[in-house]
Amino acid sequence: MRIKNMAQNQTQSTSANKKISTYLTMIVLIVMALAITALFIAAYTYMTALTVEDQITSGVFAGIGLIALVLSVFLLFQSKRQTAQIKIEVPKVMTTIECTNKGCNTKTVREFQRGDYVYKDLDIPCPKCGGKQMITAIYKEVKEKEKTYNV
Amino acid sequence: MSLIPGSDSITQIISLLSYVFFIVLIFYGQRIQMYVMIREVENSLHKLKHIKEEGRKNAIDAIKEIGKPSVDPSARVDRYLEYFTIGPQGMDPAGIVNKLDHVLDVRDERLKEEVKLMAPSSDEVQVNNLENTLEAAMALNFIYKVVRHYYIQGKKTLSLYVIMQLQMILPMVMKEADAYSNALKAFAYGQPIGDGAGPLIAGKLMHGYETRKLPKDCVMATVPLEGRTALIIKATGPGGNVGKPGDAVEAVIEENEGKIGLLIMIDAGLKLEGEIVGEVSEGIGAAIGGPGVDAYKIEEKLTKYKIRNYAVIVKEDIGDAVSPMRKEINDSVDKVIERVKAVIQERTKEGDKVIIVGVGNSIGVGQ
């Protein structure tokens, strides 16, 4: 019963989505049509311009037309682009291995392997002194720089 | 009659359309604004759905890979994702902490049993890791369902304010969802997470010393530190586990008949925007999150025996807390240990007993 209700909800939501999509698309298309008309008028006015005033008018029409056209195209493709952007990034995790001998400072960094954990004693001896090795750190490095706001 | 004197017919049509458009905006502006908001929420909802489904898939893959079940665990996972917990009735608040504690114990037990049934070949560490993986998937499922609920409700009622509230909190919700989706992989692989800063520090202090088990799912080691006796406590690792530090601290204080010079709690603390990840900060009080049961138990004992308690936190945001540990957090370990040593030297006498608790999830951190 619950599953049935949920399915109904999902169906409702899909049909409503289409309705909203059509509504928004209509508005965007009207703006686009107005923009194109404005661009045509701009071109026509420029070609038949006799005075400087006519040239300014054509410039204004061209500006308005271009802005409206760019905005409407942007709105139209925004949702498609956003859906395409969905991806889950898996960060690179590193494991640091150190020799437990106090005099030996051997340190190895390799990619994380399943079964690694911090403070795990490893069976592989230190390549330098043959001593015991231990995992001392497991971490991910965040490459992107955080934006600073100077406040 | 012309709208703009001296202009041609096309310009007049444009002007007329502009007026119409302006009038439409006056009457339907709010509704258009709402549709734009709905569109934004819709996009985020699609992303949430994708993250949620990816989370479910990852959890099922991890169970299949680690637990080697004889039957497909998908149906059981779906049932697990829908589990809920009903908190105790609060009309008469006396004794509510113990009731909540009991509810949480039952929940934990039930979820662990479910994981064991789903993944029969897994050992205790893997069961804990899988439980954490499923809990992250459960959180994603819940976030998606709540957002979907308000989205559908907003559209049904066409209420700008329902949609507006949802749209306003969406950036934070999406951030949390991203964090949980990162956590899923970390839990499945058994990688330490940002919340494990406390256990990582406690683990470093107790490494090489004999440990013993404490209630519940915690370990303790007695370590000489700056001429004092440090009783170091952390959740048992390396499986995904936060233990019950409240019970552990309670037991240790009672064992020592309250003769404890100081209690220091080390935990990951939420940073504010603008603060640096891995920054170390010091304060007073029980540094422990969760539903409050452990904090209550610790505070009760501290008050009974008049024990001072200090807190040291490593700052990070919610995303860092549940995703694989960042290098900055890992690098703060030595800074925290220095702080702890300084506090012990300044606030206690030689020969005193000090409890140090590393609070947090011990996933990927041994002892």
Question: What report would you give on this structure?
Answer:
The complex is a heterodimer of chains A (151) and B (367). Chain A has 151 residues and is an alpha+beta fold. Chain A has two domains: 2-84; 93-140. Helix content of chain A is 52%, strand content 15%. Chain A has two helices and four strands; from the N terminus they run ααββββ. A four-stranded antiparallel beta sheet of chain A has the order 2-1-4-3, with no helix packed on it. In chain A, helix 1 (2-47) runs antiparallel to helix 2. Chain A is rod-shaped and about 90 Å long. Chain A starts with a helix and ends in an 11-residue tail after the last strand. In chain B, strand 1 and strand 2 (218-225) form a beta hairpin. Chain B has two domains: 28-189, no CATH class; 194-358, PAC-like subunit (Rossmann fold). Chain B has a seven-stranded mixed beta sheet with strand order 1-2-3-7-4-6-5. The radius of gyration of chain B is 27 Å and the shape is elongated. Chain B is of the alpha/beta class and 367 residues long.
Which tags fit this structure?
heterodimer, A: 151 residues, alpha+beta, 2 domains, 4-stranded antiparallel sheet, 2 helices, 52% helix, B: 367 residues, alpha/beta, Rossmann fold, 7-stranded mixed sheet, 11 helices, 7 strands, 58% helix, elongated
